[in-house]
């Protein structure tokens, strides 16, 4: 039984006769398990985390201050927003500029890498809509009586 597993060790980029060249255009995607260097995994990691896609969406409109982001995303707590912004900064997707004065003003801007996520976010939205139509899984209706 041990010999069954030895063939997979160290051979994460084995050739596969049926690789779809659109889905797997290069050797980095020809893996048998999720690998950190796989472009798909890199893209998914960039937008992972609760609220990350919404923070990125708001920053696509240009530089924003912390208070402005809180106003655009009123349901996210200040703590969670700070955590998301810090994580996006660590991923190299957001640049932070702290301006002198009282109070200190902080401005968040997407980097080139952050801006490169725009097509992914657009496609994720379109794909989500298509899945909702195809599966009949419509988004939960908000309480209309509050409006």
TrEMBL record:
InterPro entries in the cross-refs: HTH_HxlR, WH-like_DNA-bd_sf, WH_DNA-bd_sf
Region listing for Disordered, in residue ranges: 1-32
Biological source species: Streptomyces cinnabarinus
Protein name: Helix-turn-helix transcriptional regulator
Keywords (A to Z) from UniProt: DNA-binding, Transcription, Transcription regulation
Coiled-coil stretches: none
Pfam families linked to this entry: HxlR (PF01638)
Start and end residues of each HTH hxlR-type domain: 38-136
Compositional bias of kind Basic and acidic residues: 1-19
